[in-house]
Design brief:
Shape: globular
Structural class: alpha/beta
Oligomer: single chain
Number of strands: 8
Distance between the termini: 11 Å
Low-confidence stretches: none
Bound molecules: 2-phosphoglycolic acid
């Protein structure tokens, strides 16, 4: 089973999400079952609507892009794992944009993982290189080199595989690559048995191009 993770980042509102879903759901999606798990990660306010509209399709899962390191309680503006429970299956933790713009440290990211796991939410733990420490309990690790994110300069398969050897992956963790994945380069990664899935930003924002990626991933 391969994993395709759509990271919408801080894009879309209700109208745009519905348009994405309207177009996406016009496709015959039945071929995806058993081949690929597709994890859609919209901004918090759109989680419920995306979940509602994809819920009859078991091969779609929903992910949040972040979670509070606090438990629920008096933390204005935070979204706790307890709030996300029942709404999402996964949560992206430690994306380089959060490390960079919100100064998130390994210690804080470990706390986020603990909060998520306590609520049976699966962390997708992102690292930029081998210097980022991986929380030991995680089962999904996404390697996203900074130079490759949003630049069109995807990292070569050879380099991704070399980095995989340097990372201290938890036992049996799934290994995900992210950074400028497109329909042109997706196959090169997915043909490698060492890569379990892809984290896709820009190419997931248009439903037709994302659908094209899914179709290609099934053909691998
Ligand atoms: P990108 O983003 O596909 O636009 O490079 C990937 C990510 O940051 O998760």
């Amino acid at each position: 089973m391969k994993y395709l993770i759509a990271n919408w980042k801080a894009n879309k509102n209700i109208q745009a999400a519905n348009e994405w879903l309207d177009i996406f759901l016009k496709n015959d999606l039945s071929f995806i079952r058993g081949q690929v798990e597709v994890i859609v990660c919209p901004p918090y306010p759109l989680l419920a609507i995306v979940r509602e509209r994809l819920k009859r399709l078991s091969f779609f899962k929903i992910g949040a892009q972040d979670v509070s390191f606090f438990p629920g309680g008096p933390y204005t503006g935070e979204v706790s794992a307890a709030t996300l429970a029942g709404l999402v299956d996964y949560v992206i933790i430690g994306h380089s944009e959060r490390r960079q713009y919100f100064a998130e440290t390994s210690r804080l990211l470990f706390q986020k993982c603990r909060q998520a796991l306590d609520q049976q939410i699966e962390p997708i733990f992102c690292v930029r290189d081998a210097a980022d420490v991986i929380a030991p309990q995680v089962r999904f690790v996404a390697y996203e080199p900074i130079e490759a994110i949003g630049t069109g300069q995807n990292e070569s398969l050879a380099k991704v595989l070399a980095m995989k050897k340097q990372l201290h992956l938890p036992h049996e963790a799934k290994f995900i690559y992210g950074g400028s994945v497109t329909d042109v380069n997706l196959t090169s990664y997915l043909t490698s048995p060492a890569i379990d899935g892809l984290l896709i930003g820009a190419a997931s924002l248009h439903s037709e191009s994302f659908f094209a990626l899914i179709k290609k991933s099934v053909l691998v």
